[in-house]
Design a protein that fits this description.
Layout (H helix, E strand, L loop, with lengths): L10 H13 L3 E2 H8 L3 H13 L3 E4 L3 E4 L1 H22 L5 H11 L5 H10 L5 E2 L2 E2 L4 H4 L7
Antiparallel strand pairs: 1-3, 2-3, 4-5
The structure holds zinc ion (2 copies).
Length: 146
């Protein structure tokens, strides 16, 4: 799965992919179930869907890790959160408020918009909750991919 418009994932899947990136290695189904307080059978179903989309590689003994495509997608998801949160701090929200608020709607914002915002903000290197990375999307001409 390519990133395309960045809108193909549910908020729950967005959260999982970001967690995989944060952990940086294979995550066990039971760890995910505990971390997100969800039934392991539900987690397994979601992991299978993410694997079917090419974003995760399922591991033996009930776990998974990010595929190369999944790494790219997760990096975009983290960037989207940080660009949006940084923007909100410019309009009076504290760092913590911005992170919480953005978590409510970030999955609805397209990659095109994030790339344009990153350009307009001058490619900031730090967000309120970590480093912001740049890719050919925001560093390029910002046109919609044809
Ligand atoms: Zn944050
Ligand atoms: Zn940028």
């Amino acid at each position: 799965m390519e990133i395309r418009d960045g809108l193909g994932l549910s908020p729950r899947k967005v959260t999982y992919l970001k967690y995989f990136l944060e952990r940086g290695s294979t995550v066990k189904t039971n760890d995910l179930a505990t971390r997100f307080d969800v039934d392991p059978s539900t987690i397994t179903k979601t992991l299978n869907e993410l694997s079917g989309a090419g974003l995760l590689i399922l591991a033996p003994y009930h776990g998974a890790s990010l595929s190369p495509a999944g790494q790219l997608y997760a990096a975009f998801l983290v960037k989207r959160h940080r660009i949006l949160a940084l923007a909100l701090t410019h309009y009076g929200l504290s760092d913590e408020e911005a992170c919480t608020e953005v978590s409510r709607f970030e999955s609805l914002v397209s990659k095109h918009t994030i790339d344009r915002m990153c350009q307009a903000m001058g490619h900031p290197s730090r967000g309120v909750c970590g480093e912001i990375t740049h890719d050919t999307g925001c560093l390029g001409n910002g046109r919609r991919p044809s």
